[in-house]
Amino acid sequence: MANGTMHGEDTTCKRNGQNCALVYTYYRERNNYYSRHKATLIQHKSPKYGEWVDFTYTITFNDQEISGDNAYLTMHMFNLGKKEKLFLHVNF
Fold it and tell me: In three state form, how does the secondary structure of 6-23 look?
């Protein structure tokens, strides 16, 4: 975990490819719940602690994900540090 003392050191993702940022969607269709992996921050593009990085992907949705039968569709991001800031830009 970056607490300021690790500034400039490799993150776990950069060092060994573990705990890289992930993006998933979750949705519910009737009584079934689904998740779909959408994106992973690639190890060699991962920043060092204290560095900014653009985590840029084109994410597409299939017919099931955008069906009117869904109760909801959510996007989840995992393995972000406690003090990391996230800016999400969505274009339709």
Answer: CCCCECHHHHHCCCCCEE
Opening angle at CA 63, ends 61 and 67, nearest 5:
105
| Site of tokens 């993150």 | 11
Q: Mean pLDDT of residues grouped by 10 in the chain (92 residues)?
A: 72 90 86 88 87 83 83 82 65 52
d(CA 77, CA 63): 22
Q: Which two tokens stand for residue 12?
A: 């776990």
pTM for the full predicted model? 0.69
Report the largest interatomic distance among the alpha carbons of the chain, rounded to a whole angstrom: 49
- Domain-wise residue ranges, the chain: 21-78
Q: In one letter, which amino acid is 23?
A: V
Q: Calculate the alpha carbon distances from 84 to 27, 71, 77 in Å.
A: 26, 30, 12
